[in-house]
Amino acid sequence: MNVVGVIGGGVMGVGVAQNLAESGFEVILIDLADAVLERARTDIKNNLRFQGLLNQSGRRSDVGETMQRIAFTTSYEGLARADFVIENVVEKWEVKKQVYPLLEQHCPAHCVFAANTSAIPITRIAAVTRRAPQVIGIHFMNPVPMKKTVEVIKGFHTTEATIEITAGLLQRMGKDFVLVNDSPGFVSNRVLMLTINEAINLVQEQVSSAEQVDQIFKSCFGHKMGPLETADLIGLDTILYSIEVLQECFADSKYRPSPLLKKMVDAGLHGRKSGRGFYHYPTH
Ligand code: NAI
Description:
alpha/beta
Protein backbone atom coordinates (compact mmCIF):
# COMPACT_ATOMS: atom_id res chain seq x y z
CA MET A 1 0.00 0.00 0.00
CA ASN A 2 1.49 3.30 -0.99
CA VAL A 3 -1.04 5.82 -2.29
CA VAL A 4 -3.66 7.22 0.10
CA GLY A 5 -6.49 9.58 -0.87
CA VAL A 6 -7.51 12.09 1.81
CA ILE A 7 -10.89 13.69 1.15
CA GLY A 8 -11.51 17.02 2.89
CA GLY A 9 -8.71 19.44 3.75
CA GLY A 10 -10.15 21.00 6.91
CA VAL A 11 -8.93 20.54 10.49
CA MET A 12 -8.74 16.74 10.27
CA GLY A 13 -7.82 16.28 6.61
CA VAL A 14 -4.78 18.50 7.10
CA GLY A 15 -3.60 16.47 10.10
CA VAL A 16 -4.24 13.11 8.41
CA ALA A 17 -2.45 14.17 5.20
CA GLN A 18 0.54 15.46 7.17
CA ASN A 19 0.81 12.31 9.29
CA LEU A 20 0.57 10.07 6.21
CA ALA A 21 3.18 12.04 4.25
CA GLU A 22 5.54 12.03 7.24
CA SER A 23 5.10 8.24 7.34
CA GLY A 24 6.23 7.89 3.71
CA PHE A 25 2.85 7.54 1.96
CA GLU A 26 2.05 9.35 -1.27
CA VAL A 27 -1.03 11.46 -0.48
CA ILE A 28 -3.74 12.89 -2.74
CA LEU A 29 -5.55 15.60 -0.74
CA ILE A 30 -8.91 16.57 -2.23
CA ASP A 31 -11.17 19.48 -1.30
CA LEU A 32 -13.78 21.54 -3.11
CA ALA A 33 -11.90 24.80 -3.68
CA ASP A 34 -8.35 25.92 -4.44
CA ALA A 35 -8.48 28.48 -1.63
CA VAL A 36 -9.11 25.70 0.93
CA LEU A 37 -6.26 23.67 -0.53
CA GLU A 38 -3.90 26.65 -0.35
CA ARG A 39 -4.74 27.10 3.32
CA ALA A 40 -4.23 23.36 3.86
CA ARG A 41 -0.81 23.59 2.19
CA THR A 42 0.21 26.52 4.41
CA ASP A 43 -1.11 24.82 7.56
CA ILE A 44 0.76 21.58 6.84
CA LYS A 45 3.99 23.42 6.06
CA ASN A 46 3.72 25.44 9.28
CA ASN A 47 2.81 22.38 11.33
CA LEU A 48 5.77 20.45 9.95
CA ARG A 49 8.07 23.29 10.95
CA PHE A 50 6.64 23.82 14.42
CA GLN A 51 5.51 20.33 15.45
CA GLY A 52 8.66 18.68 14.18
CA LEU A 53 10.32 18.48 17.54
CA LEU A 54 7.17 17.54 19.41
CA ASN A 55 5.62 14.80 17.30
CA GLN A 56 5.00 11.35 18.73
CA SER A 57 8.00 9.66 17.12
CA GLY A 58 10.33 12.44 18.22
CA ARG A 59 11.73 12.60 14.69
CA ARG A 60 11.84 15.74 12.62
CA SER A 61 10.51 15.42 9.06
CA ASP A 62 12.19 17.12 6.13
CA VAL A 63 9.61 19.76 5.23
CA GLY A 64 10.40 19.87 1.49
CA GLU A 65 10.44 16.09 1.06
CA THR A 66 7.23 15.64 3.05
CA MET A 67 5.39 18.37 1.12
CA GLN A 68 6.42 16.76 -2.18
CA ARG A 69 4.55 13.61 -1.21
CA ILE A 70 1.22 15.49 -1.07
CA ALA A 71 -0.76 16.40 -4.20
CA PHE A 72 -3.37 19.12 -3.50
CA THR A 73 -6.29 18.91 -5.92
CA THR A 74 -10.00 19.46 -6.47
CA SER A 75 -10.15 16.49 -8.87
CA TYR A 76 -11.03 12.91 -7.93
CA GLU A 77 -9.22 11.54 -11.05
CA GLY A 78 -5.96 10.77 -9.22
CA LEU A 79 -7.80 8.31 -6.97
CA ALA A 80 -7.48 5.71 -9.74
CA ARG A 81 -4.10 4.99 -8.07
CA ALA A 82 -5.34 4.98 -4.46
CA ASP A 83 -4.96 1.87 -2.29
CA PHE A 84 -6.76 3.43 0.66
CA VAL A 85 -8.97 6.50 1.12
CA ILE A 86 -9.62 8.43 4.34
CA GLU A 87 -12.71 10.64 4.11
CA ASN A 88 -12.77 13.74 6.34
CA VAL A 89 -15.51 15.94 4.90
CA VAL A 90 -17.89 17.94 7.07
CA GLU A 91 -19.98 15.98 9.65
CA LYS A 92 -23.24 16.19 7.71
CA TRP A 93 -24.84 13.10 6.28
CA GLU A 94 -26.19 15.07 3.29
CA VAL A 95 -22.60 15.95 2.35
CA LYS A 96 -20.87 12.67 3.22
CA LYS A 97 -23.36 10.53 1.33
CA GLN A 98 -22.54 12.34 -1.91
CA VAL A 99 -18.81 11.70 -1.59
CA TYR A 100 -18.88 7.88 -1.50
CA PRO A 101 -20.47 7.34 -4.94
CA LEU A 102 -17.66 9.56 -6.32
CA LEU A 103 -15.09 7.38 -4.56
CA GLU A 104 -16.76 4.27 -6.04
CA GLN A 105 -16.51 5.83 -9.48
CA HIS A 106 -12.80 6.66 -9.27
CA CYS A 107 -11.08 4.22 -6.88
CA PRO A 108 -9.79 0.77 -7.84
CA ALA A 109 -11.68 -2.30 -6.62
CA HIS A 110 -9.12 -3.17 -3.90
CA CYS A 111 -9.24 0.29 -2.29
CA VAL A 112 -10.46 0.48 1.32
CA PHE A 113 -12.73 3.37 2.32
CA ALA A 114 -12.14 4.69 5.84
CA ALA A 115 -14.53 7.28 7.26
CA ASN A 116 -13.08 9.70 9.78
CA THR A 117 -16.40 10.71 11.30
CA SER A 118 -17.38 11.89 14.79
CA ALA A 119 -20.73 10.15 15.05
CA ILE A 120 -22.22 8.93 11.76
CA PRO A 121 -22.61 5.12 11.82
CA ILE A 122 -20.11 3.29 9.61
CA THR A 123 -22.80 0.81 8.52
CA ARG A 124 -24.87 3.71 7.14
CA ILE A 125 -21.86 5.00 5.20
CA ALA A 126 -21.08 1.52 3.86
CA ALA A 127 -24.65 1.26 2.56
CA VAL A 128 -24.08 4.02 -0.03
CA THR A 129 -21.10 2.12 -1.51
CA ARG A 130 -20.92 -1.14 -3.39
CA ARG A 131 -18.08 -2.40 -1.16
CA ALA A 132 -19.48 -2.55 2.39
CA PRO A 133 -16.93 -5.23 3.46
CA GLN A 134 -14.14 -2.72 2.63
CA VAL A 135 -15.60 0.19 4.59
CA ILE A 136 -14.32 0.94 8.09
CA GLY A 137 -14.29 3.84 10.56
CA ILE A 138 -11.09 5.46 11.77
CA HIS A 139 -11.86 8.12 14.33
CA PHE A 140 -8.63 10.10 14.48
CA MET A 141 -7.98 12.44 17.39
CA ASN A 142 -7.04 16.08 16.93
CA PRO A 143 -4.29 17.21 16.29
CA VAL A 144 -3.72 14.01 14.31
CA PRO A 145 0.12 13.92 14.16
CA MET A 146 0.35 14.42 17.93
CA LYS A 147 -2.20 11.83 19.06
CA LYS A 148 -0.96 8.27 19.42
CA THR A 149 -4.25 6.36 19.65
CA VAL A 150 -7.31 6.24 17.39
CA GLU A 151 -10.70 4.55 17.65
CA VAL A 152 -11.33 2.04 14.84
CA ILE A 153 -14.94 1.11 14.11
CA LYS A 154 -16.09 -2.15 12.59
CA GLY A 155 -19.22 -1.69 10.49
CA PHE A 156 -21.81 -4.46 10.16
CA HIS A 157 -20.14 -5.83 7.00
CA THR A 158 -16.49 -4.85 7.66
CA THR A 159 -14.25 -7.90 7.15
CA GLU A 160 -11.20 -9.05 9.11
CA ALA A 161 -9.12 -8.45 5.96
CA THR A 162 -10.17 -4.77 5.95
CA ILE A 163 -9.31 -4.48 9.65
CA GLU A 164 -5.87 -6.00 8.97
CA ILE A 165 -5.16 -3.60 6.09
CA THR A 166 -6.24 -0.69 8.29
CA ALA A 167 -4.09 -1.91 11.17
CA GLY A 168 -1.09 -2.03 8.80
CA LEU A 169 -1.68 1.54 7.66
CA LEU A 170 -2.08 2.78 11.23
CA GLN A 171 1.06 1.00 12.33
CA ARG A 172 3.04 2.78 9.59
CA MET A 173 1.51 6.06 10.80
CA GLY A 174 2.78 5.28 14.31
CA LYS A 175 -0.70 4.80 15.75
CA ASP A 176 -2.22 2.36 18.23
CA PHE A 177 -5.94 1.70 18.01
CA VAL A 178 -8.92 0.50 20.00
CA LEU A 179 -11.37 -1.55 17.92
CA VAL A 180 -15.07 -1.11 18.73
CA ASN A 181 -18.36 -2.14 17.15
CA ASP A 182 -20.49 0.31 15.23
CA SER A 183 -22.89 2.60 17.07
CA PRO A 184 -23.63 6.32 16.57
CA GLY A 185 -20.82 8.33 18.19
CA PHE A 186 -18.94 5.04 18.85
CA VAL A 187 -17.49 5.07 22.38
CA SER A 188 -15.60 8.37 22.46
CA ASN A 189 -18.19 10.78 21.18
CA ARG A 190 -21.24 9.19 22.74
CA VAL A 191 -19.67 10.24 26.03
CA LEU A 192 -17.68 13.34 25.02
CA MET A 193 -20.43 15.11 23.06
CA LEU A 194 -22.88 14.85 25.96
CA THR A 195 -20.25 16.16 28.35
CA ILE A 196 -19.43 19.13 26.13
CA ASN A 197 -23.12 19.88 25.51
CA GLU A 198 -23.84 19.86 29.25
CA ALA A 199 -20.80 22.06 29.91
CA ILE A 200 -22.22 24.57 27.41
CA ASN A 201 -25.59 24.43 29.18
CA LEU A 202 -23.85 25.35 32.45
CA VAL A 203 -22.31 28.42 30.82
CA GLN A 204 -25.66 29.34 29.28
CA GLU A 205 -27.37 29.09 32.67
CA GLN A 206 -24.59 31.25 34.18
CA VAL A 207 -23.75 28.60 36.74
CA SER A 208 -20.12 29.24 35.87
CA SER A 209 -17.87 30.75 33.25
CA ALA A 210 -16.18 28.67 30.53
CA GLU A 211 -12.86 29.15 32.33
CA GLN A 212 -14.33 27.79 35.58
CA VAL A 213 -15.81 24.71 33.88
CA ASP A 214 -12.45 23.92 32.31
CA GLN A 215 -10.55 24.61 35.51
CA ILE A 216 -12.70 22.09 37.41
CA PHE A 217 -11.94 19.37 34.86
CA LYS A 218 -8.23 20.19 34.83
CA SER A 219 -7.57 20.88 38.51
CA CYS A 220 -10.04 18.45 40.10
CA PHE A 221 -10.05 15.58 37.59
CA GLY A 222 -6.53 15.94 36.21
CA HIS A 223 -7.70 16.28 32.59
CA LYS A 224 -5.17 17.96 30.28
CA MET A 225 -7.90 20.10 28.73
CA GLY A 226 -11.36 21.11 29.90
CA PRO A 227 -14.48 20.26 27.83
CA LEU A 228 -14.87 23.77 26.43
CA GLU A 229 -11.21 24.05 25.40
CA THR A 230 -11.71 20.67 23.75
CA ALA A 231 -14.87 21.94 22.03
CA ASP A 232 -12.97 24.92 20.61
CA LEU A 233 -10.22 22.60 19.37
CA ILE A 234 -12.68 20.23 17.66
CA GLY A 235 -14.75 23.08 16.15
CA LEU A 236 -18.14 24.14 17.53
CA ASP A 237 -19.81 23.49 14.17
CA THR A 238 -18.51 19.91 14.22
CA ILE A 239 -19.73 19.53 17.82
CA LEU A 240 -23.22 20.74 16.84
CA TYR A 241 -23.41 18.46 13.79
CA SER A 242 -22.22 15.48 15.86
CA ILE A 243 -24.84 16.04 18.56
CA GLU A 244 -27.48 16.41 15.85
CA VAL A 245 -26.39 13.03 14.43
CA LEU A 246 -26.71 11.44 17.90
CA GLN A 247 -30.13 13.05 18.39
CA GLU A 248 -31.33 11.80 15.03
CA CYS A 249 -29.91 8.27 15.45
CA PHE A 250 -31.12 7.62 19.00
CA ALA A 251 -34.28 9.80 18.91
CA ASP A 252 -33.46 10.57 22.53
CA SER A 253 -33.95 14.09 23.93
CA LYS A 254 -30.82 13.79 26.05
CA TYR A 255 -28.91 14.68 22.85
CA ARG A 256 -30.76 18.01 22.44
CA PRO A 257 -28.12 20.54 21.35
CA SER A 258 -27.59 23.43 23.73
CA PRO A 259 -29.26 26.63 22.41
CA LEU A 260 -26.05 28.52 23.25
CA LEU A 261 -24.07 26.11 21.05
CA LYS A 262 -26.49 26.72 18.18
CA LYS A 263 -26.28 30.47 18.66
CA MET A 264 -22.47 30.45 18.67
CA VAL A 265 -22.35 28.40 15.48
CA ASP A 266 -24.86 30.75 13.81
CA ALA A 267 -22.69 33.68 14.90
CA GLY A 268 -19.63 32.14 13.23
CA LEU A 269 -17.89 31.37 16.54
CA HIS A 270 -16.53 27.98 15.45
CA GLY A 271 -13.65 27.78 17.93
CA ARG A 272 -9.94 27.73 17.19
CA LYS A 273 -10.32 27.46 13.40
CA SER A 274 -12.40 30.68 13.23
CA GLY A 275 -10.34 32.57 15.82
CA ARG A 276 -13.09 32.63 18.43
CA GLY A 277 -15.23 30.17 20.38
CA PHE A 278 -15.35 30.03 24.15
CA TYR A 279 -11.86 31.56 23.99
CA HIS A 280 -10.03 33.86 21.57
CA TYR A 281 -7.22 32.64 19.27
CA PRO A 282 -4.79 34.47 17.02
CA THR A 283 -6.18 34.31 13.47
CA HIS A 284 -4.33 32.91 10.42
P1 NAI B 1 -13.81 20.99 8.74
O1 NAI B 1 -15.09 21.71 8.64
O2 NAI B 1 -12.61 21.66 9.33
O3 NAI B 1 -13.37 20.46 7.28
C1 NAI B 1 -14.22 19.79 6.41
C2 NAI B 1 -13.69 19.97 5.00
O4 NAI B 1 -14.44 19.17 4.10
C3 NAI B 1 -13.80 21.43 4.49
O5 NAI B 1 -12.52 21.88 4.09
C4 NAI B 1 -14.76 21.32 3.31
O6 NAI B 1 -14.46 22.22 2.25
C5 NAI B 1 -14.52 19.87 2.87
N1 NAI B 1 -15.59 19.30 2.04
C6 NAI B 1 -16.93 19.43 2.18
N2 NAI B 1 -17.56 18.72 1.21
C7 NAI B 1 -16.59 18.13 0.45
C8 NAI B 1 -16.60 17.29 -0.68
N3 NAI B 1 -17.76 16.92 -1.25
N4 NAI B 1 -15.42 16.87 -1.21
C9 NAI B 1 -14.25 17.26 -0.65
N5 NAI B 1 -14.17 18.06 0.44
C10 NAI B 1 -15.34 18.49 0.98
O7 NAI B 1 -14.14 19.65 9.53
P2 NAI B 1 -13.14 18.68 10.34
O8 NAI B 1 -13.06 19.12 11.74
O9 NAI B 1 -11.89 18.50 9.56
O10 NAI B 1 -13.98 17.33 10.33
C11 NAI B 1 -13.97 16.44 9.23
C12 NAI B 1 -14.55 15.11 9.67
O11 NAI B 1 -13.74 14.56 10.73
C13 NAI B 1 -15.97 15.25 10.25
O12 NAI B 1 -16.73 14.14 9.89
C14 NAI B 1 -15.72 15.31 11.74
O13 NAI B 1 -16.82 14.89 12.49
C15 NAI B 1 -14.55 14.32 11.88
N6 NAI B 1 -13.71 14.50 13.06
C16 NAI B 1 -13.39 15.76 13.52
C17 NAI B 1 -12.57 15.89 14.64
C18 NAI B 1 -12.18 17.24 15.13
O14 NAI B 1 -11.56 17.35 16.21
N7 NAI B 1 -12.46 18.34 14.42
C19 NAI B 1 -12.04 14.72 15.34
C20 NAI B 1 -12.36 13.46 14.71
C21 NAI B 1 -13.18 13.37 13.63
